[in-house]
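Narrative of activities, Objective 1.

The group set out to show that a structural description can be obtained from nothing but a protein's sequence at a throughput compatible with the screening campaign. Below is one input-output pair from the validation batch, recorded exactly as produced.
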Amino acid sequence: MSSRIDGDKSGQVPKPVSRILRGPRPESVPGVVGTAVTVVGLLDIAAGVFPRFRHSRIHAVTEVLPGSVGPFAAALAISAGVLLLLLAHGLKRRKRRAWRAAVVLLPAGAVAQFTYRHSILGVVIAALLLALLLRHQSEFKALPDPRSRWKALANFVLMSAGSIGLGLVIVNSHPGRVVGNPGVYEQISHVVYGLFGFEGPVDYAGRVSWTVGYSLGALGMLTAVTTIYLAFRPEHPAARLTADDEVKLRELLARHGGRDSLGHFALRRDKAVVFSPSGKAAVTYRVVSGVMLASGDPVGDVEAWPGAIERFMEEAKTHSWTPAVMGCSETGGEVWTRETGLDALELGDEAIVDVKDFSLSGRAMRNVRQMVKRIERNGYTTKVRRVSELTEAELEQVRGAADAWRGTDTERGFSMALGRVGDPGDGDCYIATAHRVEEGDTSPFGDLKAVLHFVPWGKDGMSLELMRRDRAADPGMNELLIVASLEAAPALGIEKVSLNFAMFRSALARGEKIGAGPVLRMWRSLLVFLSRWFQIESLYKFNAKFRPRWEPRFVVFRTTRDLPRIGFAAMQAEGFVTLALPRLFAGRRRPKPVRTCAHRHVQAPAVVPTQATEREVRAA
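Output recorded for this entry:
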């Protein structure tokens, strides 16, 4: 009788060795290759820039780099390194174009290594990476991202800045061969001349001058070639909401719009949409920095949500976008996590006021009541109407005022903003305005002093979308108009009103209570500190004045390491981070307000944010 131990079977290779021989799992190949290309690119640049690096203790590693003899070798090393770094991110994101470029570049680099360095090891490593790319080419199927030719200008600016910075390092990497003592101005001039292929004012002993010159010329050539390529490649504009898509979404909202207060914001025309196979549900999204951002819950029948979510995830996979959802409800978060395996994290709470329960009476409402009464005694009046009830002249006045009173250069908002006022298709929206006639008032907007804009929330609700006020008006305009809207709601058939979104509200509320632990207090202190820029605490306190009920909202994400990227993309979408062209290259600039108000009362941040407190700040 014989026995054998598992893992030591006759004629079989042990599992660890077998695993190594099989290579990495197919789904991990893009990450492995992208990381390897990044490391090789960095070492390539270091070998081309720093002469001593070639004779360091990791000389064996540098053997995989292009040759280190002669001026051409340094330029080739730097060029290959920069190109590999540019490709690495695309390879990690499974981009087909990056795969094609890498398949061409790796053999070229291997030939260069063998020609200049006679490096067999370099050829072997390049061949291994090339073999991985060819064997697993099915993993690199991602289509290009939305793009425009403005990226050519951005590439030129960034590559020029990077080339000048790296050029200064190259110029100063041979201190023992420099003739004289050139200053910073001469060094920068030498770099700029070198990028254009000319000899600069800095001189070197021996052949170093040729090495530096060819290296700088290679950087300039890369900047020019990549910029020309981006300028002349076909454009892939970002998807937009078509007229047919908008009609379908409005039909879904008419039947199911009362489920989510953010449903109407799916009609933003800078969003794209995917529908379920049955057409009974849809998910709207925007792609920002490689992140596919959905907002709110899917629109339509809950039973059809899984089909729309599946289409959303397929689209993300096709383009290798990072899927994420901002501001979905608890029900929406449960469906997203169940259907996709994604994770969810509470982002904050939405303030919802039930009209039947709202009253200005009582001690808790004393501050709001006193502020509203004081403003009314100062001669302010209010109007709350549907957009369809306003004349075209009144709508033009509101649009002009909303634009002039905006506190930022760019329009903010994405997940909880509509981005337009008075559109012909938005006649069922609501506008609340504050007015006061002033003698000698030269405002181009007449007696208009503040504006609130609401979008429908089903048949019996409305959701706050925009808040704008004249900086010269008395403090408390927003409180006045919110109270006026809540008091006028019954006549309009409105039973619930969604106000602003308060990020991390529960942490702020619990952190200020007696008995809060040190971790919670520290977290609250950090949020209060961040409120100097993102108005977290001030907006929470402003919402709390109206005694709302709080509904949690969530962010849905794939992995924890995606959260920083998702957060940055969300801030771009919401308008808090703007990667726009400098004013020198910008087109039309937003006109400044006609009148200033530096000498008048300005509402304090503790009352409401000093900038335009649109629905934009409901989700930072």
